[in-house]
Amino acid sequence: EAQVTQNPRYLITVTGKKLTVTCSQNMNHEYMSWYRQDPGLGLRQIYYSMNVEVTDKGDVPEGYKVSRKEKRNFPLILESPSPNQTSLYFCASSSPRRLAKNIQYFGAGTRLSVL
Amino acid sequence: DAKTTQPTSMDCAEGRAANLPCNHSTISGNEYVYWYRQIHSQGPQYIIHGLKNNETNEMASLIITEDRKSSTLILPHATLRDTAVYYCIADPDGSGNTGKLIFGQGTTLQVKP
User: Fold this and answer.
1) Residue in A32, A42, A59 closest to B104 by CB
2) The dihedral sign for the CA sequence A108, A42, B7, B87
3) What is the Cα–Cα distance from B65 to A93, expressed in whole angstroms?
4) Nearest CA to A93 among A20, A18, A3?
5) Sign of the C-alpha dihedral, residues B46, A109, B5, B81?
6) Do A102 and B97 touch (CB under 8 A)?
7) Angle at the Cα of B27 from the Cα atoms of B84 and B77, rounded to 5 degrees
8) What is d(CA B55, CA A27) in angstroms, rounded to the nearest whole number?
9) Which of A26, A104, A112, B71 could staple A92 via S-S, CB 3.0–4.6 A?
10) What pLDDT, on the 0 to 100 scale, is given for residue B26?
């Protein structure tokens, strides 16, 4: 089954304690993205990756890092989480080889609370 | 990216067709119209997309006006499980370079028994 898998689904942590949210896709997609969703602000792109070792900032990259060492994995790293990073996070993947390039597949989400 | 305008909320009776409108009057010739939905904080789910012609798949139908300034998503027989926020996104084909979808506020569809 084609899917994007995020872990963990729920996470409560404290300010400054490094954490990683993993994302994996099994569709051999080149493009992967991270979004955060906040009430009243909608979904905003944090980082994206066009392929292995190719990443770039989205609209709200401050406080986040990513890496793309393998095509299927795109972890989101919070080196020193702060309460303003409390949010619902989604990973997504898509393929540029399709005629309509923005058919994206989303993970189930990770709800993060930073105390 | 073309800006889209959708009603904030709509109701629909279970079993009836749900017709969700979207205005995208500034859409350019190469911009597809995509529809996604998000059920209660789950990951957004792709529904359908189109460029000029009307489209139908197992989930929904998409009607695009001839001038492409607006479109309507049709759920032919709405069920309670179709209660969700529906997003209409007009996107240039080239924005696949960032993989970014620009989500507006969407339409909250409430399907009622």
Assistant:
1) A42
2) negative
3) 30
4) A3
5) positive
6) no
7) 30
8) 24
9) A104
10) 86
Using the Cβ of B91 and the Cβ atoms of chain A, whether some distance falls under 8 Å is answered with yes
Distance CA B52, CA B30 (A): 10
Q: To probe the interface with A, which of B35, B46, B52 has the most A CB atoms within 10 Å? A: B46
The pLDDT score that the predictor gives to residue B92 is 63
Q: How confident is the model at residue A96 (pLDDT cuts 50, 70, 90)?
A: confident
Nearest to A33 among B41, B91, B99 (CB): B99
**Rg over CA atoms, chain A:** 13
Average pLDDT, chain A: 93
Task: State the smallest CA–CA distance between residue B45 and chain A in angstroms.
Answer: 7
d(C-alpha A106, C-alpha B45), whole Å: 7
Given a contact cutoff of 8 angstroms between Cβ atoms, the answer to whether B90 and B106 are in contact is no
Q: Sign (positive/negative) of CA torsion B96, B100, B106, B108?
A: positive
Query: pLDDT by residue (tens digit) across B25-70?
Result: 888 887 889 999 999 989 999 999 998 889 999 999 999 999 999 9
| A38-55 average pLDDT score | 91
Amino acid in position B47? I
For A41, B17, B109, the CA distances from A34, given in Å and listed in that order, are 15, 34, 26
- Kindly determine whether residue A103 and residue B46, on different chains, have CB atoms separated by under 8 Å: yes
Residue in chain A lying closest to B101 (CA): A102
CB-based contact, A101 to chain B, within 8 Å: yes
